[in-house]
Batch of 4 targets.
Target 1
Amino acid sequence: MFRLRGVNSCLRRLLHGGTVNRDQVLEQLRACSAEDQVFDVVGKNKAKLTVTHVSCAVSILWQFQRDKPAWLRTVELTKSHSQFLTLRVLAENKIALMDDFMLVDMLYHFLRLHVDPHDSLVQQLVSEAWLRIDKLPLESLSKFANCLNDQYLHQSPLMGHITSIVDQKLSSIDDARILSTLMVCTSSLVSPRLRDAFISRTDHLLDTMDHLHYNNPRRVLQFLRNIKYSHRPLLEKCNQIFLSNIPRLDAENIFIIVGLYQSLQFNNCDFRLAAKQRLIELIDSSTDPFSFTKLFVALAPMASPEIREGLENTAFLLADELSAQQALALAEALEMIQSRNLGLLNKIALVIQRNLHIYRPMELSKITQALYLLEYQNPELLTKLRSILINFLQRSVIPHEVIMLTRVLSMLPCPQLDEAVTSRVEKVVAQCSLSNLTTISLAIAKWVRNDTSYRHSTPSKCVRLLQTLNRCGHERLQMADRLDLLLEELKYVSGEWFEEMLLEESIRTLQRMIDQVNFANVPELALFLTRMNHFCSPLMDRIASVAIKDIDKIQLSAIYATLLPFTVMNYDPAQADELYDVCIQRFTPHIHSFDPHVLVLLAYSLAVADCFPEELVREIFSIEFLGRLDSQLEILHDAVNMRTRLRLMELNRAVCLQCPEFQVPWFHEGYCQQVQKRGNGNVSPVQQQIHKMLGEVLGGISCVRVAVVTPYFYTVDFECILDKHLQPLPYSKSTLQISDRGKVRWGTISLENIKDELPPGAQRVAVNFLDSKSFCKNSHHMKGEVLMKKRHLEILGYRVVQIPHFEWNSMELSTPDAWKEYLKKKIFREPSS
């Protein structure tokens, strides 16, 4: 079908507008069924070949290759044929005779047949197309843009000219294929205004196009990935098209779509489940290295242990046939699933080692990171990697590349920090984003930690570099004037250096730009504050007011992020009730459109804020929803899986304790017992100290229980019972005590014993030590989860005593007598009425 379409494309100009004489050469070309036949026709008719013949011959040669699976293509063989050179010479001599369609098609086909972009033929075709660019038809313009993109000219003045033309003609583009191609090619140059215009036009064309053409929405995803813009409504529309095409998708397309979703941080349960089933169906037919690699990378992270083992066994058998790129892809996939298949790792490492000269800097960085995270031990390979990475670093002038190479070099064992590394980093640091600066700081911290020479001398190189980082970071923040760009840089910052050196300045900068906070950037700002655990009431008040005002403009998926800082950091703005009400009203009609795990996280977040929307709770604890959730948990990353299960348990507990009228059963007993068994029972030195002091204050260690597990599986640091006269009551048997090594000696503890009736007037007291994690980093403001635990323990009948770390470790409490007096005041106060 593609071959005929290509030939027809060649003929449409020849046959246009009237009767033509019979063209025997053209008929012979049309009758060819293999490359050799095409070359035979070319060789016998060199003198007769017109520009149309040349165009048609080149088109057919590409169609022959295109129709083959990627691993069976013979482009290099075709390119090296003597008659292919004839076609190249003829094409170059006849450029002036080509019409616009033919000119761009010729360029496209020669590039697909691996003619070097620096070849004079390609250069002249590009130059001629540039001269005609203003009158090129949109179809040819999109193909020409694609050719420029393939030549890494995506930021060239020529691509800028194309971007301007597209901007002017956007409303007249009615073909989703043409528009999506132009969007991808011009993505490096689009302004926010043109971006929004692209999205609006694409949204319309996706509704009107044939949904069988799934490559169009795939290119839309590529555009969004390139501009780092996750437009949820457009993503969901593309996702629906993919879902309708699941039976037609092969492993390669699913691999590409899954990768784009990961880049855009878009997760759709229905697509992942459908893709998983489709990939399982393709296992038996994916027997060659090319298709199997795509299948493995897409399927392994969401496959069951049995399927994953089968995939690894097949990979082991195919490993010797892998190309350099396929070995890289499998290494990254094995790191993602944390494989411990040493035999397979050794085989892939061999392929990598013999192809080290092929890899580009970013590819070698990915390989190094994968091997490091897999804890793969191969000194010879790691030494070679280090040497090559340093050579790349010394030659690189691209800031992002320098930072990536520096980061992975810090992962490799080395005796000391190489001067070549620091000098290269110093040359690019002024151009680095905030996230890149934090990456450098983390690399320096690793070198200092691993290099024993720094323990005995002042690490002047590192000190100088850190001082430069500090200066550049502050300058970048002080010069920032666009909130959206700043939030993009802050999205991935982390580490002690940023928190100590730049966090306060970042908050001041955000407050300076507070008027730029709007419905579009509210979720990112909220996530940053939550991730930094930084309490800033002016920014949070602004988030609340914007959310209330523009709640209908905030994407459904962003409501969870918008509410997080208020629930996590326990902040009730003046409009708190209104904020929660508008958010609940916004998402409630769309409950069924949420991925199950996202809905669980949202409901838990609201529960922390003491908010239990009945419709949401009943939906989550319905049999149908829990079934969907179980199916989704099978395909989620292990960390997300574990977090979702924990949040469901905590939500179940909160609903049982606070909303008994909902009649939701407690069904996490077994889960909690398993989690308890996995606990290590370690206690901090401070807790050991408090335990000893409590024994003295209460009149004996037998009056204190340690690490008490309550009904619904809360763990209380210490428990004691006071009678109606506030006198401690000893336990008949102390089931849990702290050993000399700081371990809790777990005895058999019965929940029934904990629920025993207390003597009349007696009270059960829970004493919890609150470390720094219980508070916001920049204040003594207690976090939401700590208050929720206190709320629940009180429902269970406890009087809760909390010992904040900043009080216990204060100068006022610096003697044993002061600590004891502090505990007495906390424990023996009269219960509030």
Target 2
Amino acid sequence: MSGPQPGMPGGFPGAPGALAGPPQKKLDPDSIPSITQVIEDDKARLGGQVFSTNIRGQVPPLVTTDFTVHDQGNASPRFIRCTTYSLPCTAELAKQCQVPLASIIKPFAKLPNNETPLYVVNHGETGPIRCNRCKAYMCPYMQFIDGGRRYQCSFCNCINEVPVFYFQHLDHMGRRVDFYERPELSLGSYEFDATLDYCKNNKPPNPPAYIFMIDVSYSNIKSGLVKLICDELKTLLEKLPREDGAEASAIKVGFVTYNKVLHFYNVKSALAQPQMMVVSDTAEMFVPLLDGFLVNYQDSRAVIYNLLDQIPDMFADTSESETVFAPVIQAGVEAFKAAECSGKLFIFHSSMPTAEAPGKLKNRDDRKLVSTDKEKTLFQPQKGVYEQLSKDCVAQGCCVDLFLFPSQYLDLATMADVPSHTGGSIHKYNNFQVETDGEHFLRDLRKDLQKSLGFDAVMRVRTSTGFRATDFFGAVYMNNTTDVEMAAVDCDKAVTVEFKHDDTLSEETGALIQCALLYTTIGGQRRLRIHNISLNCTSQLSEMYKCCETDSLINFFAKSAYRAILNQPVKNVSDILVNQTAHMLACYRKNCASPSAASQLILPDSMKVFPVYMNSLMKTAPLVGSTELSTDDRAHQRLSVMGMGVEDTQLQLYPRLIPLHDVDVSGEAVPAPVRCSEERLTDSGLFLLENGQSIFLWLGQASPPDLIQSLFNAPSLAHLQQGHMFTLPELDNPLSKKVRSIIGELLEKRPYSMKLQIVRQRDKPEMLFRQFLVEDKGLHGGTSYMDFLCYVHREIRQLLT
């Protein structure tokens, strides 16, 4: 097949997949490919349907489409998505098209209620069955031969004996008779109970623990934050995650407060009052008590309640404003070591650690470095103490979740280095105020504390012969080139894995990927979680392009660009992104499209909106050389994206802009989003914009008074308070209920909480909102989508001549 045939996908007005004529100054914005249109089309075609995974190399519906997965031998796209589902057969072809070959793996992805949770397989004393040579786990791709007595591994072709207990006869098709009874033979994803060989020191693990570490320095006490945390924990600890079917959570809890020194609390259930022990020698960190520090919450509830009541009062008169930070993490690691368990530290911290102690930091924020060759140093963590801490944390299975409440620069690049290598999350609340940010922070804390996750995890990605995993991007630690180590991995974290050829792939056998994750459950069991996927291989570039997935490609490019800025100037990285975009599209034009005038821009159907995402990526804070952006904010966005899955990067790079002024208040439906551009806003309109990190309600200056009355209980826009507004009042009318329910559902659905910002057209805060209209020119530099498309088109034409 040679490129788009008449009537084939890929077309927008003009010609199949073409923009007619030389790029004129005034192209019609409606004639260039639109993300909202692509999303709506996919929903119309595949929304609400069942996606069965029984076919090799099948391209799934988009991440923005609601569908149900039926696992029939390949992992659900919720667990694994790929940049293309048809790999080029040779390294030459791959080099020619420059399309990265990668998978985005989210091993703990949440499954909707109507999909079956993973089966757990137990092979008894012998443990999971594995190939003797390459150690791949038993899966649907293994070929049983010799009447079922042996099997050939599809990854390395080695022939293995079938253990006696596992023997089963084959049917006339050569399939085992018990094929459908065994998850590992018929499903793409499943778990194995791990034997003691898979445990540290060959003994079963203890259940994990959570330690809450609260900075009680002056600013946190004064803002009311410490009291807010203590009050919330009283109810939140009732909701610690537990194994399915378990009565109570097996997770133990502990409490530390700190400023320049650390205070540990004994909350043993036999005590009438909690006891405090102070460690002031922060250079040699140790945990002053073993018994009574990590406890079962249900047993010690009364003592813990007492403690949470007392903490805000104990430090009410503090004037201590200096803090330590590295020793706090060190204390958590030591506590887990002593208890022989893995776990998570929840650290609530406000300022740069300047007190004399290991890991003390000094201000190195220098915006003069922006747009110079030294800009990369702003993103690099300071070496030494924190590097070693990451290593110690991973070795112990200690994950760090960091909640930051800064009022000025605090060197986030260094402070967030440990969370970003231990599978942790980094939350940041600038100039925190309880009234406006309290709920927003508590939503994050609740989500974080209740997430399903695995601890002390190691992931291996195996492939069939001809290609291999070469690079890994994520909130992970790599001690060697193959083992991806994660102190914890939760349902939102994804690892992006790049593959390279080391031989020719065969169209007949295809390509296989097996991701195996060894981890400890929240109940303290050692398990292996296996995800398998089979892809096609092709010697036709047109087939490879047809099976590409733009949302996965952009996830890969975002992570690889965000890693690259650690080592080279931001400008170089941006140039590479543009060149590679032009190269990928020129290769399609040259090899796959039917002949047409050079002045036509022809894009593969699967990538027709790729330039929108790429242009948006280049306008994100880490890649924009602007001195107006805060260094900490840039570092924060860089690190957040490294752990994201495909859904999250898609939304971050193309926010949803939802018109609410004519919403059907009686129906279930949410209005279809419109394109992210100022041209789509109307003076009399009301729009909601969200990208998974921020959420805005935009009010046009001519908003009808009855709309304003229904939502704000005010007669007109002019009556609303000037400046920043953050909440919608709870009013008893259909419009208010509908809008609040739409916002509530979004807050529920996204991995992070978002703080609602209400902005009026032409008010000052509207500038914040405008930077999310990604089809327009960037506020801090960066071109509009239209200009970028014309620029890429020129680059393509140069490459072709």
Target 3
Amino acid sequence: MSPYLSFLLLSLVLLDREVVLSQECTKINVNTCKDCITSGAFCAWCKQKNFTNKGEQDSARCDTKEELEKRGCTETNIINPSSIFTPVVDTPLRSGKQPIQLAPQEINLELRPGKPTTFPVRFKRAEGYPVDLYYLMDLSYSMNDDLKKVKDLGTDILKALKQITPFARIGFGSFVDKTVLPYTNTHPDKLKKPCPDAEQYCQAAFGYQHVLSLTDDGSRFQQEVSAQFISGNLDSPEGGLDAMMQAAVCGDKIGWGNNTRLLVYTSDDGFHFAGDGKLGSILTPNDGKCHLEGNRYTKSNELDYPSVGQLARKLDENNIQPIFAVTSNMQSVYKELSDMIPKSAVGELSTDSSNVVTLIKDAYSNLSSTVIIEHNRLPDGVSILYKSNCADETRKNEPKGSCSNVKINNEISFDVTVTAERCMKPQSFEIRPLGFTEKLTVKITTPCQCECDDQRDPADCTSKGHIECGICSCNSGHVGQNCECRVGDKTEKELNQGCRRDNGTSICSNLGDCVCGVCQCHASETPGKQIYGTFCECDNMNCELNNGKLCGGHGKCDCGKCLCEENYQGSACQCLKSDEVCKNANGTVCSGRGHCECNVCKCKPGYQPPFCGECPACPSPCPKYAACIECLGFQRGPYSKNCSKACSHITHTNVDKVVNRKVCKEKDSENCWMIFIMEELDGENQYKAVISNERECPEPPNIAAIVAGTVAGIALIGLVLLLIWKIIAFLHDRQEYRKFEKDKANAKWNKADNPLFKEATTTTMNPNFSGD
């Protein structure tokens, strides 16, 4: 792309942006300076006297600075406040016993709503920055060898810190878990002798105990640690989050100073979190408060474990950076935990904690070289973005600032952009680097009032008021754009009532000013548009468009209606006053079955445009006019005596044969089929018929054939019935004969006996005869 074309495109983009911004300001109906400057970040107000024309509303004073200057408003009369920042406390960065790593320390922001401001924040890692390290150790039985090693390495840990900074302190605390089932073995014998080895001394299980507050005395640390004993609890100890919460919130007892705060957590097991307390019937949520009495966590068996989010929030609020020194089998678990806690690190702890000194040095180096700045809760309606100017890269528009690999005495900076969405009371918030106690206090005010300092002139506002920001502020008893209307006995409400249409709520249709009870319509900002009417309800622009033109380009708009030219008509003057477009090929308007309206045929029901020529849904005229076809074509039928009168609307032609796809076939009075064609002519019920000379008449029946067929049919049916009876009788006799033959073959008697013979005598016994 050529440089000239690039410049042209850029100019068009800027011009379009300027037009859009101007429209954003002018489309808002504002009548005061305050409303203007709070309506848009780029809106300005002109306080110049006599800036508006007669009838022009005061909202014309609100526009972009560039547009106001084009319209003649001088720069000194334009009110266009900007968002600015003012450093209040900006102590230079320094090292030493009381180092300052963050600057400035306090600033004031004047934020115009919608208009952002950007201010720089500087940070430099100071050499020898004080460090507080609190060593929180798991004292379950599996950590026995680790405790022995820590007892030996106590002074070494402090020496390692002294190599980093001469201002180092160290403290110690320990934890196991809640002393209820299923977390701790509560058997009485186990409580008396918690160690598995009967000869070894172990202390009973506990939740968390604070052993040593932060001190720079390494020998005292070693002495206190050496006095500790392992706990005999054999169950998995997972009460670490409970202990971390108490170490974070009990700052006075731990002794946290205004230093870098490190919490070294050592364990070889996992951890419980919110909700796990239900297993031990502990249902009360953790309250995130300090409950140390006699250096013991007294609410261990009453409050549930904290959630990860709850712990992360408390660590963040107290600027504590945790270092998880855990064994290799727990690395993945604590890395996931570290991902949810800002400014935390995970290191692999050897089985006997012999590498704890190196681990702490490496973790501290990684944490301190990463600088993250963020803010606390912002006031409602305020947004913030960060641009990080790191040594190796620049990152823009992020919700927090972040730089890695920041070396000691190397200064980095962050550009912080703050925006207020609306006017508000004075507010404040803080920006601070994570893991450090230093902070930047940001105080916000939103200047939403216009300071105009107008010069008073007695002649202003018809001597009945004074100028404020270019517009009249009238004395009591006077109203109007120039205070020209004396209210008198009438109230302003009563005067305004005469400017309300149909007793509505809007005054002069919101397009004019009510002056002494009469509407004075505003001059429109749209070129060529005029606003008029008793209530400013009319204009010459709000009419129908046709082909993208007002009133089709053939009329003028008057109060919402088009006044058309002589040869045009219609609501948008879109129609010619002529029927020519509606005539069919015969020159008939809409085929005589409709009327021409706005150059389009409005047809009678059933007929279709463009010329009302056809009616697809209408019933066929053939059955209706069959009697007329009979009398016209064959001079017979019911209309034969008055055919010319009854069928005058049909013209006909007789032909030898009709060839057409739409042929009608209807029966006449002699039961013959008439073949004809009917074509509808222009007008209503006007037809042209083409009739075939030949009819299709049925032949008379053959009586002899019918009688002969009937007799033959009856005889044939008789013969068939007789044959069926004969077959049935034959089959029945045949079945009876077979049964007889079968009974005959089964009969058994002597040849001398006659099976039919019966003796002539009958013997009867008397039951009462005894034989005497």
Target 4
Amino acid sequence: MAQWEKLRQLPAVYGQQLHELYDRDALPMDVRHYLSAWIEKQEWQRAARDHDLAMVLFQVLLENLDIQHSRFVQEESFLLQHNIRRYKQNFQRYLDDPCALASTILWFLEKEKEILRSADLAEQVQFLRVEQEAMETSSQQDLERKMAGLKNEVQCMEHTMLCLEEQQDEFDFKYQTHKMEAVVDEAEKQEKIKLFQLLINRLNDCRKSTLADLNKLLDKIEELNDMLVKKELVEWQRRQQKACIGAPDNVCLDQLENWFTCVAVCLFQVREFLSKLEELVGKLSYANDPVKAQKPGLQSRTDTLLEDLLKSSFVVETQPSMPQGKGPLVLRTNVQFSVKTRLLVKVPELNHSMKVNVSMDREAPQMKGYRRFNVLGSKTKALNMAESQSGGMVADFRHLTLKEQKSGGGKGVSDISLIELQACSLPVIIISNSSQQQSAWASVLWFNMISLDTKDVMFFANCPAATWPQFGEMLSWQFLSATKRGLNDAQLEMIAHRLFGKKQDYGTCKVAWSKFSKENPPDTFWVWFDGILVMVKTYLENLWRDGHIMGFVNKSKEKSLLKKKQRGTFLLRFSESVIGAITFSWVDTTITGEPDIKTVQPFTKVDLSQIPFHEIIRNFQILEAENIPENPLVYLYPNTPKDEAFGKYYTEKTGSDSPYIKYIKTKLMFVSKENTLEAKSPMPSDMAQGEALEPINGLCEEAAEQNEAPQTLTSPLEMYHPDPMLSSSVAGPEEDLLMYLNNPNLFADIMQEEPALPDYSLQAFHGLPVQSCGSIFQ
């Protein structure tokens, strides 16, 4: 199918992209539509470089427009006649430069292909997502069916209890009536006794049946309880753990809240049924009454199920985080942080009636050197529905701080006597200086990537290695969360090659914690990778998101890719030896015609903060023979014209009107000195010997500037000074970086405000005395 026909059949969202593309006069959509077959058959890429071919295509285009105009005359399409005549007049401006017209049409065709690729990719992603969602939906549908079945059985039990009560009332009425009657006839009296025995036997059978039904109901509730607590909640906690380190996992709690609330409501109703049985037994009991024998066991079982459900329903919805941190779970002393808790059992009667208290390390080990902290600020709040968009029961703490307890001082953390429910955050790292954020975040990444036990106190004492699939996925999440574009397979393979060397399969390879964050200090793997991430997020996000930066490519791979390409092809890659830097290499040719790969010294954030990288690429020049300046960057790898790739980012103003004029007085002409190239600073991984470039000052073509003193441009060739945020040169004392894995959690405890109810007690944690849950059971 022709390209234009494919575009016309795309969904509306891509049709809108097409309309936005042709919302300009360079190539009117009418021309693209009526000449689509002819346009798609021509060699516009060759015409963009071949003046003669471009002129031929230019003339044929005008002829085709004449033919189309004649057709509209015959069809009496007045408006289309006018438009086609106007388009032809506009195209006359390309008479002196037909190559420009060819480049323009080529640009539009490539943009169309991008739209088609986006649509294809979206379709593939949707297909994969549908498969995954089908599995999730199947599990959810199974739960929904069981929830519906449970609610139906509870309704049936309500009917059963009414029948039981009516049957007992009938017996009681007849029996009381019989007692008031003076029956003298012995035979009649015996008949009445037989009748009452029959009625009491039926009542007894009904009680037994009701108790059996309650047992079956509790079996189903227990099954659902296990599914929620041991499967669904555990899976959500793991998704949240991964989401904390960048994974695009769904951590919405609304569905879980619906399920937890449904089961809790059913358990509350079972407790009401048991209370009704107690009431009936109080009115009428007899020898071997099954209710007296079985109710205590049913009551205990119901209370245990409800207790387990409520304990599990109190969760940390949003993990502790600072507003300006690298990510959650890294907290700094005396700096505010926030955390949000949620009770998944949504009971409106509890709104503002239950308090949540935040504390740190309630069971801190009594070991030398273990530092303890107090939580300061408004650390007690009531669970309420006002702070949740979905109306859930939440307590959102936004202004908490940590302060270290002095030896022998500080308020104790065991002053809370009423604790019914408790939720623990994921392990947090506490730092005392912002320069420690980088290494702290490395610890957060490693722990949450690997550990399934959030209370593993010995994790870093005997730190396990990560498999390459785990590690590569985690690295990709960092880019995905920061820039909305993760790492592709080729980029991950290059990183694996850096870590493990050349291998056919990296699936069985493992990365040790020491290799990630300890080896070769201060420039560890994580420092290098994070430096790139910060640079991309700060200065290169759009270029990265559009896929223009190949990024993770080593020198040998770079050469193998470029040497097969035409002269002027270049690629963008991250520096392997300079922290937080990017460079580019391009194909040149030697005197004998052999490909010669040249590389510019890396650009750091110092350079990128002065001038955008796309402007560097746009203005980059070297001196060729006879000192003629030339931009050697022509095609972005593999074969995209440079201006097509980066044109949309260029500033419209040029020359003296450019906002970057004070930085590009030299137009960034980095001049290669033939046969005497020498780097000012050794960069063995980025620059092969004899490939360094040096800048010159002054413009060759700007005569107006000749009388002014040449202005020195800060050159990427100068020695790089690492950013203190990206280098361990500012690393604080090792003891100041505290990994709280010795029961390292922030605890949020629910305290009950209201008076106890006598009919039910909920066992507290840690062997504390039994405490009432108050109005939760009203």
